Amino acid sequence: MSHGPVMLDLAGVTLxxxxxxxxxxxxxxxxxxxxRNYESPEQLASLVSVIHAVRDPGLLxxxxxxxxxxxxxxxxxxxxxxxxxxxxLYDASPQKAIRIAREMGWLMASELRVLGLDFSFSxxxxxxxxxxxxxxxxxxxxxxxxxxxxxRAWMSGMHEAGMPAVGKHFPGHGGVVxxxxxxxxxxxxxxxDLMMEDLMPFERMIHSGMEAVMPxxxxxxxxxxxxxxxxxxWLKTVLRGELGFQGVIFTDDLSMxxxxxxxxxxxxxxxxxxAGCDMxxxxxxxEGAGKVLDSLVNYENPASQSRLLRxxxxxxxxxxxxxxxxxxxxxxxxxxxxxxxxxxLNL
Length: 347
Known about the structure:
TIM Barrel, 42% helix
């Protein structure tokens, strides 16, 4: 059974019989995990193993685990610092920051890979312009060339750990005030400004081998009247055409308020796939997920299926072996510097 175009979520720390049946639906291709799905490293490894065994080839298993405030698993994992902390280091010592970005990408990916997860939706490539709270310290820096450099280093670390990278949120979420979880943001800047600034990190990451991209639920009014994840202009003309991207395009969550503009759940999913996405995410709404699966029961796209196969994690080692690795110990010490700085400042 090939990978379907839908990524679903789960309710708890084990797979229910109803969820197992849903994951066997031909339109399903992956699972995204959240904090509610985590109890311990041992439990997580067991859950991921069960998910992978549901069908062949195994379903993709992913998580939002960027570090900072977006890190779904805490106890038993290293607290990875936010991207902006690395960006601040860059201003004082670029080479040190690049090295740390690579090591933090490796650390994040290694701790997930030893438990069987295929990838994290990381890194964030938005510009830290200081106007978008939902991005905030998730962005490396305000300057596009710095974001690109640190993003490439982070991705290099992920690759060393056997994990593909997913850059988000194309073509850039840093220039809007609204949170797309709650409303539909609009960006009124000229397309040429977006191309010269916000798109630069994505372009450079694509040329460096980035495997996947997640578009923003943002309308760029000077280019199209649809959010980027539903826009043929952004996905086919710009991303596939002008930037030559051949990897996977994931939607952001179709349950977010900004996606409601596209219609009901089935319409959202079909429109996103027609615009150029390879896989749609439906989270925190089981009824909506069921409607998406039903609407795509006969959907086939061999090119997308081929691309999705590349999102499986590569290589494996035990968690115990990782914890014996001197590189892991050094990366954990580096990550702790940020935590110690926050304690010193009473943050």
